[in-house]
Amino acid sequence: MNTAFINHIASVLNQPIINYAPVSGGDISETFKIDTAAKSYFLKTNTSSHAQNMFQTEKLGLETIKNTNTIAVPELFACGNLGKTAFLLMEFIDAKTPSETNFKTLGEHLAKLHKTSADNFGLTTNNFIGSLPQQNKFYKQWTGFYINQRLLPQLNLAKTNNLLKDSEIPTEARLKEVLTPLFKNIKPSLIHGDLWGGNYVIAKNDTPYLIDPAIYFGHNEVDIAMSKLFGGFSNAFYKTYQNIFPFDAFTETRIEIYQLYYLLVHLNLFGRSYYTQVKHLLNKYF
Question: Keywords of this protein's UniProt record, alphabetized (predicted)?
Answer without folding.
Answer: Kinase, Transferase
